[in-house]
Write a structure and sequence with these properties.
16 strands, six-stranded antiparallel β-sheet, 11 helices, five-stranded mixed β-sheet, Beta-Lactamase, Heat Shock Protein 90, alpha+beta
């Protein structure tokens, strides 16, 4: 059976209930159709037999009445009684009465003479479809085509046959009665069918459709992630067993999902821990590689500085001595004295640069002691104040009141702050503002120092090389490119970090993080960090 039907141009899928009802209805109608046909055949035979017996009885009764009422003596009265009989007994199409004495003749008929019924004059009466003699006074034949019977009954007066009554009885009443009986049976059957459909419908609503809809609701909820819902299993039949098995399956899925979620959370936490550990190891590896690369550059620069100091130190000293002698002799020649002074200043600049390079390439000897970092900042600002005023740079200091003391080398840290202040002054040739702040870091174990200026800033390319040795953006003769590299080295040997944020036209901000006590970290890396001595 096709499970879809067309409804208003759209295919509609039939439900299980509709399919069962349609199947039951078709099966019932088929059975009813076959049984109705068989019942019609059987009923027709019974009805036809019943009508035939009633017709024979009517013929005998009529023959008896005609004798008792003396109707044979008056043809008019006889005809009237025959016509009344036609009205009273349904199915009589014609009635003829023949008188035997003094001669055989027709004395009354309800039909025209051409259609008289006379059995005695019908030759070969035995050849008809049916020839029957219920008794010695009655004979019956079936007309050709089987549409009616012709019943002949002898009319006797005191055992003497005086006349004959011939009746033609139509079989149409048989079909009418049969159709009536079959129709009533069919109506009753269809009513039974409607009742059966109603009972099936109610049964499905109560026992099938309701539980199935409940299970569908539970499965839709489970598809949406609600695994804690359960179906109501009220009956003990197959539908109830299906609901109970569905609940058991959902319970197992829920338990499995809970266990799977727990294991996924554990695996995720373990993966996150390992990722964090891997990130830490990668960061340490990166820092180690950067330190090694920095150390390699320091070693190369140290070798170069030592070679330069050895190669040019002695000639420079000789040149400087001769220049001083020439300066004494040329005291009266101002032009020559000015040139010799320029030569001597440049020689001093070269010597200072070489000494600075040598000091940078050697390990720093830190003298750690407890100190107030705010005092170091104030002293650095005080030393730089003349230059700041000369360059019209406004100084703002934000030093927190509750800053704890730290362990560090005040001299080296002051060198860091002076170097950063000088860089800020170089970045603001037309004046500006420099802000210095210090406070406890968010971790509570270190101090944070910020130096922020309103200078011309730096590009991203410059920022990527800012702490590299020998890198400078200043014009020739105004910077060696070692200042920020030395600052980075000093901060690192204090177990701290230095970062820079800058953008062209928006100023620069240096951030230094120094631990409150750098001794444990320095002891762990003492061989690589240089000489460290702690003062009480």
């Amino acid at each position: 059976m096709n499970s879809t039907v067309a409804f208003m141009g759209r295919p509609t899928t039939l439900g299980l209930q509709s399919k069962i009802i349609i199947f039951a209805a078709l099966a019932f109608i088929s059975v009813v159709g076959v049984s109705t046909y068989i019942a019609m055949l059987l009923t027709r035979t019974v009805v036809e037999e019943e009508i035939y017996l009633k017709a024979v009885a009517q013929a005998r009764a009529t023959a008896h009445q005609l004798v008792s009422r003396r109707s044979l003596e008056d043809p008019a009265i006889l005809l009237r009684e025959l016509r009344q009989m036609e009205k009273d007994f349904a199915g009589v199409q014609q009635a003829d009465v023949y008188l035997h004495e003094p001669e055989h003749r027709l004395i009354a008929s309800t039909a025209p003479p051409a259609e008289h019924l006379e059995l005695d004059n019908i030759p070969g009466i035995e050849k008809y479809n049916e020839f029957e003699r219920p008794d010695e006074d009655t004979v019956t034949i079936e007309t050709p085509g089987g549409k009616s019977w012709i019943i002949g009954t002898t009319i006797r007066d005191h055992e003497r046959a005086i006349a004959c009554l011939n009746l033609e009885i139509s079989k149409s009443q048989t079909s009418r009665v049969t159709r009536g009986l079959v129709l009533r049976n069919l109506v009753l059957t269809l009513a039974s069918l409607g009742l059966i459909v109603l009972v099936i419908h109610v049964f499905f609503l109560k026992r099938v459709r309701g539980p199935v809809k409940e299970m569908v609701r539970v499965m839709e909820a489970a598809e949406g992630g609600q695994l804690n819902v359960r179906a109501r299993a009220g009956s003990e039949d197959e539908i109830g067993a299906l609901a109970r098995h569905l609940n058991q399956m959902l319970g197992r899925i829920e338990n499995f999902n809970t266990e799977l979620g727990r294991r996924v959370e554990e695996a995720t936490a373990e993966l996150a821990r390992r990722n964090a550990e891997l990130a830490r190891i990668n960061q340490e590896l990166f820092e180690t590689q950067r330190t090694l690369a920095h150390s390699e550059r320091l070693a190369v620069a140290g070798q170069l500085a030592a070679s330069l100091a050895h190669q040019i130190g002695t000639p420079l000293n000789s040149i400087s001595g001769h220049v001083q002698l020439l300066a004494r002799r040329a005291a009266k020649d101002e032009a020559l004295a000015r040139r010799l002074q320029i030569i001597e200043s440049q020689i001093e600049h070269i010597v200072r640069t070489v000494k600075q390079l040598l000091s940078w390439t050697h390990s720093l000897e830190l003298h750690l002691e407890t100190m107030d970092l705010r005092d170091v900042l104030r002293e650095a600002v005080l030393l730089s104040s003349p230059a700041l005023e000369h360059r019209k740079i406004r100084m703002r200091m934000d030093l927190a009141a509750d800053v704890p003391n730290i362990y560090g080398d005040a001299g080296y840290l002051q060198q860091v702050f002076l170097n950063l202040i000088n860089n800020s002054m170089d970045a603001m040739p037309e004046g500006g503002e420099l802000k210095v702040s210090v406070g406890l870091n968010s971790d509570g174990q270190s101090l944070q120092v910020d130096l922020e200026d309103t200078g011309h800033g730096m590009s991203a390319e410059t920022l990527s090389h800012i702490f590299e040795p020998m890198f400078t953006t200043k014009r020739m003769g105004t910077g060696s490119g070692l200042g920020l590299a030395i600052c980075d080295q000093i901060v690192r040997q204090h177990a701290g970090t230095i970062k820079v944020e800058s953008a062209e036209g928006r100023g620069t901000r240096f951030t230094i993080i120094l631990p409150l006590d750098c001794r444990p970290r320095l002891e762990a890396v003492a061989p690589a960090a240089g000489t460290v001595s702690a003062l009480p």
